[in-house]
Amino acid sequence: MKTPLSYQVTPNDSAPVAIINALSNLYEREELDSYLIEGIYTLSYNLLVSKESNGTEGICHISRFLEREMKERGLAVKYLCSHEVFLGPGCSLYRTLDNGGKAVAKIFSKDGVRYITITSLTNDYLYYFDPYYGTECGEDIEILTHMPFLANKRIKMSNLSQVASDHVKGIKQEEKELVLFERVKQ
């Protein structure tokens, strides 16, 4: 059974919630063990350097943990950072989504740094779930209330590059992060 995607409970848990949402979207509830969820939260909070980091520390370590623990269940995990994170034809994100995979991306906004779960891509839209409840959106982003298992926001593909570049202005290249999740046939 699939479960609806979740919102963060605290200001500091966007990273673990976004990762759990990606797993929930790829796996049935019965396929996920509670020790995985505990491991995600434990790594996230053990590596949390300060309250100001918004739960963003440790996503690389969480990715390695999941890669090791979920390999036998057919999960391929790829952590990208810095110059490896880009949007455009043939990029890793588009290939992963085209193959039915999901992604967790670090975003930068006036609300601060947080993580979102990117769930789907069509010719017209990129669908994602922003776990920060009540976040304001720009005019290019549409709020969705009828897709609790897939997304709560979407953006037109024609606007994606401009919105993405606006979000990363003034951001250091090394701060960009993206984790790709894909189920592999076994």
Description:
The protein is α+β, with helices and mostly antiparallel strands and 186 residues long. It contains five helices and seven strands, in the order αααβαβββββαβ. Helix 1 packs antiparallel against helix 2 and helix 2 packs antiparallel against helix 3. About 5% of the residues have low confidence.
Overall form: globular
* H-E order: HHHEHEEEEEHE
| Structural Rg | 15 Å
Strand order of the largest sheet: 1-7-2-3-4-6-5
Q: Which residues sit in consecutive blocks of at least 5 with pLDDT less than 50?
A: 49-57
Please, how many helices? 5
The tally of strands reads 7
Q: Report on the biggest sheet.
A: 7 strands, antiparallel
Describe the oligomeric state of these chains in a short phrase.
single chain
Q: How much β-strand is present in the residues?
A: 15-25%
Features:
24% strand; seven-stranded antiparallel sheet; 186 residues; alpha+beta; 5 helices
Short description:
This protein has 186 residues and is an alpha+beta fold. The protein has helices at 14-26, 34-46, 59-70, 92-98, 157-167, and strands spanning 75-81, 102-109, 112-121, 125-129, 141-143, 153-156, 177-183. It has a 7-stranded antiparallel sheet with strand order 1-7-2-3-4-6-5, with helices on both faces.
Record the SSE blueprint.
Blueprint: H1 14-26, H2 34-46, H3 59-70, E1 75-81, H4 92-98, E2 102-109, E3 112-121, E4 125-129, E5 141-143, E6 153-156, H5 157-167, E7 177-183
Antiparallel strand pairs: 1-7, 2-3, 2-7, 3-4, 4-6, 5-6
Helix pairs in contact: 1-2, 2-3
